[in-house]
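task queued by scheduler; priority normal; single chain, no ligands, no partner chains; default sampling; output format set to structure tokens
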Amino acid sequence: MDPRLHGASEELPGARHSRRGLLNLTAWLASAACALALTAATAAPAAAPAADQPQKGGQIIIGTWNEPTQLNPVVATPAKEQRAMVASAIHDALWRLGPKGAIPNLAVEMPTVANRGISADGLTYTVKLRRDAKWHDGTPFTAKDVVFSYQALINPNVKPADVVGPAEMETMEAVDDFTVRWRMKRRYAPILTALADFYIVPHHILSKSPDLNTDPYNNRPIGTGPFVFSEWVKGSHIILQANKSYHGPGPYLDKLIFKSVPDLTVLFTQLKTGEIDVVGYQGVIIDHYNEAKTLPNVKVFAESNPDMEIFGFSHLLPMFQDRKLRQALYYGINKKPIINDVWLGLPLEADTYISRTHWAYNPKVKDAYKYDPEKAKQLLEEAGWKLGSDGIRVKDGKRLSFNNSAATGNKAREKMQLIVQQQFRQIGVEMKIDNKAPAIMWADFYRKTQFETYWGGQGRTVGPDPDYTIRLHSSQIPVKTGKGYNTMAYSNPEVDRLIDAGVQEVDQDKRKVIYQQLQELLVVELPHLPIYHSTYIDGIKATVQRFQPNPNAMAYGCWNPHEWWLRK
């Protein structure tokens, strides 16, 4: 066993239906699907020159800050991004999102109107499957596996990992062993993008399971992917072996190892010393960015990402149901020291969940809340919060005091908390820091809205699509409905209406109008306080080749490990 896996973490802290409308819909579906359906040849890195052909052999160790709780991609897990890195190396989807578009995987090609994969009304999809894919135990992959995976995701007895996409399907059937067809409940513009995270699990194994939530498979999965599960030592590492019979390109490595390093400073130290080869989802923390760029044996990637850093509220608490209070708090936050001092000016300031560089962004919302402590004080006064003798505001005998939680081990977030804590104090608000270990923070404490306020990231929901259903729709409040990621428990009928309208409209220009209306509503409502859009800093050993950051993928930097190879 690699000695780099030992002793590393012992000291770590915790269209309407007119003929014209139908033609417009057909044309849009054809163009949209074709735009998305970049082939593996065009979306993958260009062929390397002869002297740079991939070399086979060796292993790569990836540092993971937050160890996954299980590896079944159809079952929920608090550490979703960390799970995605491992589970997506073991399992395949029909297609995956590369940096430039979709790459067919278990599907032969992307469905389009032109190839009759998408019906003219945009409601029926037919997908042809590969005939050469096999499960790691040698069993042939068939359409039965795809249908079973869909049924598992929508099964009310299964805690689903993510039902965006499959939840919009009315039925799915296996036409034959290598063809699946499904019917949508309604036109759903992001469906092809959503299914890039629809990983397939084996029917021949899991159809016999009495409970998918607790099945032993979850800790010893079998996929069709480029790597085969080998070993999991909880709290230490997960080892995957190369799938020698993989149907796609690669893999070139013999092993892929995910090493648990629950402190981001220690993670960077181990990158410097060569104990790990690739930093995981959390990347290089900003405190080490300048140093990382000077390391001769390390390559650094700093890439903007649609994910967003937010200050989130529990809308279950009466205090935060007051919109004027939320607005006051936003006026009381000065983002400049956060973006410029903590993050060295790298992130893009956020106004809403849609980035300023996105096609759906509404420039009217830019800088809607410039730092204005006097305006903050005025709004607090109007809301009935009067300054108390100790400098903290009081209303009806209750002090304006609340806890703010983040996951321990993230020094940048801890610095940002301290900055905002001081800024809030200046307007008469007491924010007490109550951080939790990652395994606690992102479990029921987060999923069941047990926090008062929290500081954290809010990831994309359907790749680069502007749909935000699972984050803000009232049907996606897990503490109430058991599904989704609206962990702030925010509910607004007009927000729901606009979100629903956005996903059903297939014309991009019309979608843009809808999402611009949504943004204008959100900057008034402020279900959360957007701070900035993330910059992910990846650090990898210089010998690792064909590593490629991918802001479209949940697994981000670990979306294509089958293409990685080591320069000897």
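post-processing summary
- The chain is about 25% helix and 20% strand.
- Residues 92-218 form a domain with the Dipeptide-binding Protein; domain 1 fold (CATH 3.90.76.10).
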